[in-house]
Amino acid sequence: MSNPTTRKDFLKKSLFLASGITLVPSFLHAKNEKVSGALNPKMVYEFVNDAHTDFDKVKKMLEATPLLLNAAWDWGGGDFETALGAAAHMGQKETANFLIAQGARTDIFVLTMLGKTEIVKAMLKEYPNLLHSQGPHGFTLLHHAEKGGQDAEQLMEYLQNLGLKETFMELKK
Fold this sequence. Notes:
Elements: H1 7-32, H2 41-50, H3 55-64, E1 72-74, E2 80-82, H4 83-90, H5 93-101, H6 108-113, H7 117-126, H8 141-147, H9 153-161
Antiparallel strand pairs: 1-2
């Protein structure tokens, strides 16, 4: 038979547990204090804007400020764009692959432009409404497949067979 818990034991265990509960969130927050504060908006704009056309500038800026990797620029009206999204809708494969290799978050639009057929098909099978999603600036998956050129030809045909005809849609408001 086990020993009954005394009031003193109960209070010690409760205090220990309560301390642990309050310290864990503080510990997690302390780890993130190094990255507190917003990035300079002008720098984010420049990074995203340059990702449309200037691979060398993107590499230099990312080397100097690694936190730009997943930064998004708000063009207004719900149109948010990362450097990876910019590279994708412009067909900038070298920039896109570089950013992904650095750990950038990718999405179905980027994967479409890169011609990642099996991944995109699996995503559309699981989530069919993604077929009519809007990427940055309202560009569709079909636009991204066109920008992917030969690498994305199979996906372009697949998307068209699924009924996607538009390369651009006004952003939903």
